Amino acid sequence: MVxxxxxxxxxxxxxxIQAILGQMTQDAPPVVVAAGTGDDENPIGTDPxxxxxxxxxxxxxxxxxxxxxxxxxxxxxEAAFDxxxxxEQHNVFLSPAPFVEGALAAxxxxxxxxxxxxxxxxxxxxxxxxxxxxxxxxxxxxxxxxNTDIPPSRDxxxxxxxxxxxxxxLHARPAARVAGTLGGYIAEVWLIRGAxxxxxxxxxxxxxxxxxKGESIQFxxxxxxxxxxxxxxxxxxxxxxGDVDKPDFRLQGKNMLEGGIAAAxxxxxxxxxxxxxxxxxxxxxxxxxxxxxxxxxxxxxxxxRIELSELEHMTSGNVDSAEEAEFFxxxxxxxxxxxxxxxxxxxxxxxxYNAESAWAETIEKTMERYxxxxxxxxxxxxxxxxxxxxxxLRALTEEEFRGPQLDEPAILVAxxxxxxxxxxxxxxxxxxxVTQEGGATSHVAVFARALKIPAVAGVKTLIRPLLDxxxxxxxxxxxxxxxxxxxRQRRALEMLRAQWDDHLQDVRSKAVEPAVTRDGKSVRVEVxxxxxxxxxDAIQAGADGIGILRTEYLYLNRDSEPSEEEQYAAYSKAAAxxxxxxxxxxxxDLGGENILPYLDNISTExxxxxxxxxxxxxxxxxxxxxxxxxxxxxxxxEYPIKILLPMVSQLTELREVYGVINEARAMLKKTSxxxxxxxxxxxxxxxxxxxxLADQLAxxxxxxxxGGDDLARYVMVxxxxxxxxxxxxxxxxxxILRIVRDIIRIAHEADIPVSVGGDITSNLQxxxxxxxxxxxxxxxxxxxxxxxxxxxxxxxxSEAKELALEAMELPDANSVKSLIAMHCCxxxxx
Length: 830
Hints:
By secondary structure, this protein is an alpha/beta fold. It is built from 33 helices and 24 strands. The strands form 4 sheets. Strands 16, 17, 18, 19, 20, 21, 22, 23 and 24 form a 9-stranded mixed β-sheet that branches. The two termini are 41 Å apart.
C-alpha cells in the first residue's frame, strides 16, 4: 500500500484532516504526520528531520506521496528528500496538489489499493475539477497564483525594488538568508530580475539566477502577510544581505605567471630568497654487521619521534591550530608505517646497506609512488614522506636542521615546503611565499593561512629562472604572481597590501570585542596555550582569557625535574601577562607517552593512554607534585590563578589533591614564604567514571572543564591518531552531546561554571550546538578565535537549543552533522 505523509505548519490543521479521513476510509493506508515544530512557545513551523522520519515510517514498499500545506513546508520537504539515499528517493514523490483536497484524495485512493501513478493523476486533477465547478475557464491563470515558480502580475501582488549592494552578488549565502528570512511568513515571494524569476524560498533557484552586484531586482509577494515579508527582506537588503564585503584583493596585469593556485589570502611585493633544502649527503656502504645498522636506524627513528612529539606540542604555541599539529601526528604514524620500516630493514638485512643508504633508498621509492598518483591531495603527501625521511637521516648523520633563514624581509620561494620548514617561520620576515609544487590543501596553504602570510602554490617551473634579490609581486587571494612588476603594478600591489593590512587590523579589532549571541547570551572565548611565550599573542589576538595553561613543557626533554623556583617564575610570568584576569593552570599531565627519564621506578604501560596518567601520576609521585603545588600556591598569593586537575576519575582523587594542597601550604608557612589561603580547584571531565560521578565532583570542585577529545575517545573507544573508523565516532556523536548536556546541567545546579576545550571547539558546527547546550565558555585555538566569535554573534540561543535537542535524538554523528549543516546552511555562515 502507498504511504502518505502530511507536512503542515500546524498540528491542529492535520488533526482536523485526520478526523475527516477517519470517516471516509476503513482500510486506512499508513498516513504519517510531520506537523509543527514541537516547541510549545513557537509551535507553528516545519522540521526537515521530522519529515525525513515520517517518510521512512510511511514507506511500506509501494512508495510514499508527500503533501505540503504552504511556504516553508515545501523547502523543508525538499531538504528531507535530499537527506534520503538515492535508492529511497526513487520511491518518494512530492505532490504540488492543494493540501486538504490532496490529502483526502490521496488517502482514499491509497486505501482502495491504487498505485503511486494513479494517485498522483487523481490529485493532479483536483484544480481542474474545482475550477470547472466554480466556472473558472482559465485554470492556468488560477494555478499561476499558486505556482511558486511563476510570479503573479504587479496588480495582484505587493512589490519592492532595489539594487543589489553585495560585492559578490546574491551568491549562495545571501540567497540562503533570503529564504531563511521568509521562514516566518506564509506569503509566496518571488525574486525577479528582468525576464527571469525564482522562488524566493528556493536557495538553488535564486543562486542559479547569478544576480550580480549593481543589478536591479524586485521581490514580489502575495498573501496575508506579504507586506511584512517584503519589509523584512528590505531590512535584510539594507544590511548587505548579511554579507561583510571584504576588500577586492584582485589585481589584473601583464607579466602574470600562469598556473598559480591561491593558497593563502593577501598580497606582497619584495625581493625573493630561495630556499633549497637538500637531502643529507649519503654514502652507500656495504656492511657486515647488519644488526648494528638495525639498532642505529631504530635509535634514529626514536629520536625523530621525540622531535615530532615536541613539534606537535609546540605547534599550538606557534600557528595555534589543530590542523597543523595533525601534520606532525601524521609524521609520527609514518615512522611506524610497515611499508617504510620493512623496506628499510630489507635493504639492511638482504642488500647489506648501511642504515643511512637503506633509509634514503626507501624514502626515495616511497616518494616516487606518491608522485605518480592522480589525486592532488594524496600526491601532496610526498612532502610528508620527504620531511619525515630527512628528519631520520639527520639523526643518523648528526647534521643540524636549518630551515628557511631570512636576514631581511623577503618573499620566500621554494620547490615546496614541509611542516618542519613552516613551523618555525618568522612571519615578520616572510612577506609572502611562492612554491612550485603544492595546492590549496598543501602544507604551505594550511600553515600560511594560519600564520596569515600571503601565499601562492603550484606555479610549476615558471619561477625557476629567478635569482635571490629579484623583485616579484604576488596575490594569494587569486594566485597571481608578477615578475619584475613595473611602477604602475608596484603601486597597485602596494595599495593592495595596505588594504590587506587594514583588513587584518579590522578583523583583529572585532576579535577583541566580546562574543554575545543575538539574544544577549555572553560566551567567553578563550585560547589554550602550551607555553608562556604564547600568552601575549593570544591576548593580543582578542582572546577573552587563557583557557588552560598546560605545564608539561616544564618537565619534558630535560635531565632533571623542574625546581619549585623555576616553576614559580614561569607561572608568575604567565599570570602577569593577563593584567588581573584569572589564569587556569593545569597540573602536569604526565605518564603515558610523557616519560620522565629522571624519575626512578617508572614502569612502561602496555597502553600509554591509560593507567598512571594525569592526577594519578601526580599522586603516585607526591614529592614531584608537592613542588608544583607549592609553586602554584606562591603564584596565587600575587596573581589570580586557578588549579585544574587532568584525568580525575573519582572523588577520592580530588580529596587527595586537597590534602596535598594543605600539606604544601603548611610547608610554605613553616618557612615564612607567602602563599594563598584558598585557591579554586577545577576538574577535567574526560574519563567516563568522572561523567557518572559528576554530581559528587561538582559538590567539591570549583569549576568543570570538559575535555572533548579524550572524552570522545574513551567513550566511543577509538584512537584519534590511528583509526579506521572514519568520522562516525566523533565529538558530535549524540552520546557525547548527551554527556555534555548532563555535565552542564549538573555544574549549573551546583552553581559552578563549565567550559569546553579540545578539537571540538575548532569545529564551528559543534560550537553552534555547544552554545545551544548552555556552555559558559569555550577554549579554542588562536587560529579559530575570530571565526568562533563571529559565529556566536550570529546565533539565536533558542534556535541553537532546539537544534541541539534534535541532534541528541539522532542515531549517529553523521546524522548530527547533516542536521547541523542543513540548518546552518539556511541561517548561518558555517
